Amino acid sequence: MKNIELGNITPTVVASFDGLPDARQRELVQCLVGHIHQFAKDVRLTHEEWRAALGFLHRVGDISTDSRSEFSLLSDVTGLSSLVDVLASDPSATPGSVLGPFHTVGSPWMDNPVNLIAANEGRPVLLRGRVCNTDGEPLPQATLDFWQNAADGLYWQQDPNQPTDNLRCQLRMDAQGGFEIATIRPVPYQIPLDGPVWADLVGPAGLSGWRPAHFHLVVSAPGHHSLVTELFDAEDPYLESDAVFGVRAALVGRYAQQTDPAACARHGLPGPDCLVMSIDLRLAPVAPTP
């Protein structure tokens, strides 16, 4: 078409992607193009604003690395990550929450139960749980990818004083679908302040950027949907103002003081009292292929 104008540009561009062979990709791209065009029309987007947006995205890409995704952070602070989690949630399963920008593939496999405390400062705690299906039956074939921040609020990618893969691991469940992790109590922290998401978006909006203390978990089992989620501390002051909208009521846990000399001895913790958080993680089954 030689005469592109306001009245025909959007349907023309949408139709240009009719040849995409995958039907779902075609639907996603064409719908996205339509919404982007409508946004530009609604706000009467200027050349200066368009160039500024492209520059912002360039800076987001420039600071991203294999171990730190500024694009994930952008998705988080705009609520998109949590929206996708909510859309995908099965009401009978544990709800999902944000992956965050500091997940890395390939954390070391360790024996279950595991002690991650090593030289980390902080309050020793035990995280105990069980992976099961939506009927409460254990899933002993499940695996767990776990990570958290250190006592200074930083993940190992942010802190040159921490060893690689500090406070993270992958585990296989025991015969009852259970796991036990000796670690330190996570602390609240601010999202990264050294990138464009903070400098151009969150900071100028006057937001604190704080996240409540949490553990990160990715749980997988054959025949079930993987779960990406977080576990939060019921005593944390930032539960009501999470910068990335990740808190769900079902993911808020409470530490309890328990007398467990065996666990303390097993992990070399001062005992016999342990500060313990317990959780059942329920995975939704994958629907059979018709």
Strand content is: 15-25%
Q: Specify Rg, calculated over alpha carbons.
A: 22 Å
CATH topology of the largest domain: Protocatechuate 3,4-Dioxygenase, subunit A
Helical run tally: 7
Q: Sketch the topology as an H/E string, one letter per element.
A: HHHHHEEEEEEHEEEEEHE
Describe this structure in words.
The protein is of the alpha/beta class. It folds into two domains: 9-45; 71-283, Aromatic compound dioxygenase (Protocatechuate 3,4-Dioxygenase, subunit A), CATH 2.60.130.10. 27% of the residues lie in helices and 22% in strands. Strands 1-5-2-12-11 form a five-stranded mixed sheet. The chain has a five-stranded mixed sheet with strand order 4-3-8-9-10, with no helix packed on it. Helix 1 (9-16) packs antiparallel against helix 2.
Features:
alpha/beta; 290 residues; globular; five-stranded mixed beta sheet; Protocatechuate 3,4-Dioxygenase, subunit A
List the helices and strands and how they pair.
Elements: H1 9-16, H2 23-43, H3 47-63, H4 70-77, H5 80-88, E1 114-115, E2 124-133, E3 143-147, E4 168-172, E5 178-184, E6 189-190, H6 196-202, E7 210-211, E8 214-220, E9 227-233, E10 252-253, E11 256-259, H7 261-267, E12 273-283
Parallel strand pairs: 1-5, 2-12, 9-10
Antiparallel strand pairs: 2-5, 3-4, 3-8, 6-7, 8-9, 11-12
